[in-house]
Design brief:
Shape: globular
Distance between the termini: 10 Å
Structural class: alpha/beta
Radius of gyration: 26 Å
CATH superfamily of the largest domain: Aminohydrolase, N-terminal nucleophile (Ntn) domain
Number of strands: 27
Number of helices: 19
CATH topology of the largest domain: Glutamine Phosphoribosylpyrophosphate, subunit 1, domain 1
Length: about 625
């Protein structure tokens, strides 16, 4: 969850470190810290709060941050409360080793007891301080090099980590290691960049090395990178890739927050996800869906006994939509599982099963663990993720990238609709392969998919109208979100967005389930957001609206533009273009994203950095 950063080269390290940490704050912003090295001395500063608070503290304390080697950290708290002491970097008892860490050391308590028995003391509550002192203990007891001490220590721990560690008496070497938590190295002539993801260094180099699990890099000033396996010190050949991220993609531009920018980027992100996959060929204008990961494993999908989709958070809501689509178009039974629960309940997995794992970052710890379990049991694992070179992308049997572009806002928006777009393509493609989807329906949905970016662009024009509604309801304490069929997961996602960024309690329900409990919450102070487009549930939704009206609930309805009947029944309407039921979540979610954003903004919340949350959940 945390963000780590480092630099070794010929330039001053501090400007890169502090600016890089700002770009990594989506990974956590409970506390932050920086250490810069010069000869055999180092300066360290850390504080509770954002990187801006750290900058202020360094300025006011006049801390000397001169040096061409440094590491930094922005924290999402796991072990220990957010405060100055628990902030990284952490220093060993001798003050010789300085380390930053992203992940969780599960057996830290047992190690801590051993270290206490050997005279070590601890200032913080963190597992990281335990690890840096374990490395020091092994180094000094055995008179090992730092490199060897790190390798032996990491072979003794249980958990996940990406670390960077420096010995103050050898400050021109940084050792970096990875297991379960992401780390990328930017490589230039005479300088190296270290970061949890490449975003902080894309303005400096396009050459990147993504460390794999169980790898350790020894980085020395003015020397070539030395890459090793942690388990046996086997030397590896680094595989350098070229970054394709555009700098403009990670800047806010004219928008107040990244979240708003990313909501407005959805026409483009969906178009990019469709590009090269939804093709019109020959004079007959035949529509073909091309997905290499399916085409090269055609028989696996045709003969699948069942499909299980595994995800967390917004990706789990997208998975529920995928369940509707895949079962309808492929006639294969589908189950949707929380990744955090899947591997702990001894799931039944057959070798003819397909497991689909979905994660924006491709680094979600629970999803990665579920992926590994599925592969151990012989299932075919298909991945859907947004980040090229991520752990999920490297470990699945086959997969597809969403091409949503970098998503900086903690609350998922464009990654959610990109995932739905991929799931629609998968369902249509597999249904066509199995010859179980109606040919006319297939053609019509493919043609409509091509028009989706334009429909979303037109839907975004309702933002000002939604802002007016938001001004009416931003002070309420509770919201209900209702939907039916394929739009029930959209109601769940809409309520999650409101909770995440405004801290207003909200719950999503299938509209028909309202009278089995939630209707008890309805009164004149409770706004109910209901997805009421003209689909096969339309008459049933009208009945649900009447039930709410009878109890004086305030209704905000998402309706089709031509709908007059519901307009006469509700307090507020938000109009969207007409769309097929199967594709409707791509449109119905847009007003719910905007509603959550506008309410949070009016409430004065930091929309991009909601409290207690981080973008990439790389710990269990």
């Amino acid at each position: 969850m945390c963000g780590i950063i480092g630099y070794i080269g010929y330039k001053e390290a501090y400007p890169f470190l502090v600016n890089g940490l700002k770009k990594l704050e989506y990974r956590g912003y409970d506390s932050s810290g920086i250490a810069v090295f010069c000869e055999n001395k180092y300066s360290i500063c850390k504080t509770k709060g954002s990187v801006s608070e750290l900058e202020k503290k360094i300025f006011l304390s006049n801390t000397n941050m001169k040096g061409t080697v440094g590491i930094g950290h922005t924290r999402w708290a796991t072990h220990g409360i957010p405060d100055d002491i628990n902030a990284h970097p952490h220093v060993s008892n001798s003050n010789e080793l300085i380390m930053i860490h992203n992940g969780i050391i599960e057996n830290y308590h047992a190690i801590k007891i051993i270290l206490l028995e050997n005279g070590f003391t601890f200032k913080s509550e963190t597992d990281t301080e335990v690890l840096v002192n374990l490395i020091e203990y092994i180094k000094k007891e055995n008179k090992f090099s730092l490199e060897k001490a790190v390798r032996i220590s990491l072979n003794e721990i249980i958990g996940a980590y990406s670390i960077a560690i420096i010995d103050k008496y050898n400050p021109e070497t940084i050792i970096v290691a990875k297991l379960g938590s992401p780390i990328a190295l930017g490589i230039n002539e005479k300088e190296f960049f270290i970061s949890s993801d490449p975003i902080p260094f894309i303005n400096y180099t396009k050459n990147v090395l993504y460390l794999k699990d169980g790898e350790m890099a020894i980085i020395k000033k003015n020397k070539k990178l030395d890459l090793r396996k942690i388990i046996d010190n086997h030397k590896l050949n680094p595989i350098i890739e070229k970054l394709k991220i555009n700098l403009k993609e990670i800047e806010k531009g004219k928008y107040k927050y990244f979240m708003l920018k990313e909501i407005y980027e959805q026409p483009k992100s969906i178009l990019n996800t469709l590009r090269g996959r939804l093709l019109i060929q020959n004079k007959k204008k035949e529509i073909i869906i091309s997905i290499d990961g399916i085409d090269s494993n055609k028989n696996v999908f045709i003969n699948a006994k069942c499909i299980t989709i595994i995800a967390c958070g917004s990706s789990w809501h997208a998975s529920l939509i995928g369940e509707y689509l895949l079962e309808k178009f492929t006639r294969i039974p589908v189950e949707v599982e929380y990744a955090s629960e899947f591997r702990y309940r001894n799931p039944i997995i057959d070798k003819k099963d397909i497991i689909i794992v979905i994660s924006q970052s491709g680094e979600t710890a629970d999803t990665l663990s579920a992926l590994k379990l599925a592969k151990e049991k012989g299932a075919f694992v298909f991945g859907i993720c947004n980040v090229v070179g991520s752990s999920i992308a490297r470990n699945v049997n086959a997969g597809v990238y969403t091409h949503a572009g970098p998503e900086i806002g903690v609350a998922s928006t464009k990654s959610f609709t990109a995932q739905i777009t991929v799931l629609i393509l998968l369902a249509l493609k597999i249904g066509k392969y199995k010859s179980v989807i109606d040919k006319t329906l297939y053609k019509n949905l493919c043609r409509e998919l091509i028009c989706i970016p334009k429909k979303i662009y037109n839907t975004l024009k309702i933002d000002k109208h939604i802002k007016k509604i938001s001004h009416i309801y931003y002070k309420v304490n509770n919201f209900l979100y209702l939907g039916r069929g394929i739009n029930f997961p959209v109601a769940l996602e809409g309520s999650l967005k409101l909770k995440e960024i405004s801290y207003i309690h909200a719950e999503g329900y299938p509209a028909a389930e309202m009278k089995h409990g939630p209707i008890a919450l309805v009164d004149e102070k409770t706004p109910i957001v209901i997805i009421a487009i003209k689909d096969r549930y339309y008459e049933k939704i009208i009945a649900n609206i009447q039930e709410i009206k009878a109890r004086k609930g305030k209704i905000i309805a998402i309706i089709n533009e031509e709908d007059i009947q519901i307009r006469m029944l509700v307090d507020h309407v938000i109009k969207i273009p007409k769309i097929s039921e199967e594709l409707s979540p791509l449109i119905t979610i847009i007003p719910l994203q905007l509603l959550a954003y506008q309410i949070a903004d009016i409430c004065g919340k930091n929309v991009d950095k909601p409290r207690n949350l981080a973008k990439s959940v790389t710990v269990e």
